Each structure stands twice: as structure tokens, then as C-alpha cells.
TrEMBL record:
InterPro entries: Dev_Immune_Receptor, Leu-rich_rpt, Leu-rich_rpt_typical-subtyp, LRR_dom_sf
Name of the protein in question: Insulin-like growth factor-binding protein complex acid labile subunit
Keyword Repeat recorded: yes
Presence of keyword Signal: yes
Record's keyword terms, sorted: Leucine-rich repeat, Repeat, Signal
Provenance organism: Ceutorhynchus assimilis (cabbage seed weevil)
Gene3D superfamilies: Ribonuclease Inhibitor (3.80.10.10)
Leader sequence segment: 1-22
Taxonomic superkingdom: Eukaryota
PANTHER family, alphabetized: SLIT RELATED LEUCINE-RICH REPEAT NEURONAL PROTEIN (PTHR24373), VASORIN (PTHR24373:SF261)
Amino acid sequence: MREEIFSIIVLFIIIGTPFCGAQECEFKEKTYICENINYEFPNFFYGNYPLRCQDCQIQVFDHKSFPWENNLNSFNLSFTGLEFIGQNSFVGFKNLQYLLLQNNLIKNISKEAFKGLNQLYELNLQENKIRIIEAGFLKGLSSNLVNISGNFLEILPEKAFFGSQALLILDLSKNKLKQLNKDSFFNLEELEHLDLSSNQLCFMPLGLFKHLRGLKQLNLSQNKFKKFNFGTFTGLKNLIYLNLNKNLLTLFDSSYLLPLMHLNKLDLSSNAIYNLDANDLMLNLPTLRAIVLEDNVFSCTLLKNILQFFKSKYVEVVNDNPRYEFFNINGIACIDGVILNSISLDYFLKKSQEDAQLLHTYCQ
Ligand SMILES: *[C@@H]1O[C@H](CO)[C@@H](O)[C@H](O)[C@H]1NC(C)=O
Ligand SMILES: *[C@@H]1O[C@H](CO)[C@@H](O)[C@H](O)[C@H]1NC(C)=O
Ligand SMILES: *[C@@H]1O[C@H](CO)[C@@H](O)[C@H](O)[C@H]1NC(C)=O
Ligand SMILES: *[C@@H]1O[C@H](CO)[C@@H](O)[C@H](O)[C@H]1NC(C)=O
């Protein structure tokens, strides 16, 4: 009797345990959808279509996770809880164009993790937990875009991108970068677009841009720059667009921009610049066609002179969010009187708004 009860219990346990191999992939609407994968993907015919992992919980992805030759053009492992990517994990993905690894918990990427991905357009690593990248972590990868936005990087090591190919767009925004090495961007001669916005940068080592001769767009918005040096921007001959929005600039010395031979658009908005020599700016940047200036601490007299000058030079002053209910010229806030030293932008805007509210006293 006891044995019978025992065997019934065992039977219940066996039937009640979900079949561990119950990982399925199906082909639906021109996409492979694999569900409930936790390590290895099933051996299946994977043709020239995207694959998406749905309701998957994959902690580790390594060379045994997907050893099958395939023709997939997109592989989506986002939202799978992924923490670690091992060496040579994607060598079978000869045809892959999009690798989506965003919104995971990736902390650590092995050297040569992406080796063999020869025709990628996008490597998406944004919104992970990456703190440290090792120099050469992209070795053997060819991808036009690499997105590492929304991680926890504090330092970019020397030759971080060594061994990668064809990189045109690099997004490092929304990290905690405080420090760049003068050789951080080694091997990125072809890069056209670099986003370093929303970091903690207050300094760029001289020589940083010597490897970025092809750069066209540089976004340094939302950092902590107070000033630059002669030489900071040396090497950026081909830069067309520079964004310095939301930094801590007070006196802007445009002669630091002399190396930029083709700059077309400059964004200086939302700093606390109280003195800007527009004439000097045009001498340093004769190619300038558009400038963004709003939300600096300008007196109305200075602002008027600046705007008149740019108008005479046919430089467009772009302002997408005009401040109508402030003391303003063309929607750019200003205050009456002379400003001789830097004041906080918050105080300035409050004052400009209060001054505007007092205008009705003209009727008294
Ligand atoms: C990637 O997969 C996730 C989770 O299944 C899904 O939410 C997301 O829309 C997919 N992205 C693309 C571009 O297919
Ligand atoms: C990354 O993970 C590997 C293997 O787990 C480990 O050997 C290595 O030390 C880790 N690197 C960092 C920077 O955490
Ligand atoms: C990188 O990913 C973020 C999402 O976190 C997105 O907003 C951004 O546009 C992406 N960058 C590029 C260059 O596609
Ligand atoms: C520059 O970065 C800021 C802040 O992340 C973002 O709002 C803006 O769209 C970026 N501009 C360009 C042209 O990439």
C-alpha cells in the first residue's frame, strides 16, 4: 500500500513537472517567435527572417546558446533578463543586420563576444547595466551603429573600440562618464556621429579628437563643461554640428572653436552665458549658418546686438520654444540692465518673467 501511494506521488510529480524541453519556436507573420527559452535555442530551420524571444529568461548567452547556422536578419533578445554575453556567441549569425540586446541586465561582455558579425547595421545595448567595458570588447564586429545609451559607464578606457569596423554612429549618452582617455576613440576614423550627451563630463583631454577626423556631429549636451582650452577641439576639421546645450558655460570664448573648418550649426542654449562676442564668433566660424542661443543670461541690450549681428550675416537664430511671456527678443528671454557676472539661469528666468508681468504699469 505504501509503495502504491509512493508510485502515485512519483507519477504526479512527473506529470506535474512542465516538460523542460518545452521550448518552442514558431514562424508567424514572417517572424520566428521563440518562447520561454532560458539557455539553449532549439535546433530549427531559421531562414532569412527576424527572430524574437518572447517571455524568455536568459541569464547567460554564450557560444552554446545558439550554435546553429542560420540566415536570420534580426535577433531580438531584449527584455529577456540577460546578464552576461560570452565569447564568440554569435559566430553562426552570418546574415545578421540587427542585434537587439537592449533593456536587459547586461553587466559584462566578454572580449570578442560579437566576433563574426560582419554585416550588422545596429548593435543595440542601450538600457543595460554596463559599468565597465574592456578595450577591444567589439573586436571582430562590423556594425554601422552601436548604441550603449542608458548604461553606467564612468570611464572609457584607452582604445575601447579597438578592432571594430565600419562604425558610423556611436551613442554613449545617458551614462555616468566622467573621464575619457586621450586614446578612447582610437580606431574610429570613420565615425560620423558621436553622442556623449547626459554624462558627467567636465573635461576632455587634449588629443581626444585626433582619431575622429571624419566626425560630423558631436553632442555634448547635458554635461558639466565650464570651459574649454585651445586645443580641446583640435582634429575635428569636418565637424558640421556641435551641441553644447545644458552645460555650465558662463563666458563663451569662441576661439576654442577655430579648428572647426566646416561647422554649420552650434547649440549654446541653456547655459549661463552672460557675454558673447558675436563678431569674434563669426571670425572663428565663418561657415556658421545656424545658432541656438536661448536660455542664457543675456541683457536685452546685448541680445539685441547679437541678434542684429547674426541677422546681418544671414545666420539663422533657431528657437524652437519661444518664451512669449518673458521679457524677450524674438522669443529669447532677456532682462533689462547690465549683467557683469554670471547669475543662475533659474534666477534670470524668474526675473525676466517678473519684469514682463510689470509691463501693465504702463497704463498707470
Ligand atoms: C523585441 O522583443 C521585445 C520583447 O518580445 C518586444 O517588446 C519588442 O517590440 C521587440 N522589438 C522589435 C524591434 O521587434
Ligand atoms: C566578466 O565576466 C567574466 C566571466 O564571468 C569574468 O572572468 C570577468 O572578470 C568579468 N569582468 C568584469 C570586468 O567584471
Ligand atoms: C539609442 O537608444 C536610445 C533608447 O535608450 C534611443 O533614444 C536613441 O535614439 C538610440 N540612439 C540611436 C543613435 O539610435
Ligand atoms: C543631443 O542630446 C540631447 C540630450 O540627450 C538630445 O535631447 C538631443 O536630441 C541630441 N541632439 C542630437 C542632434 O542628437
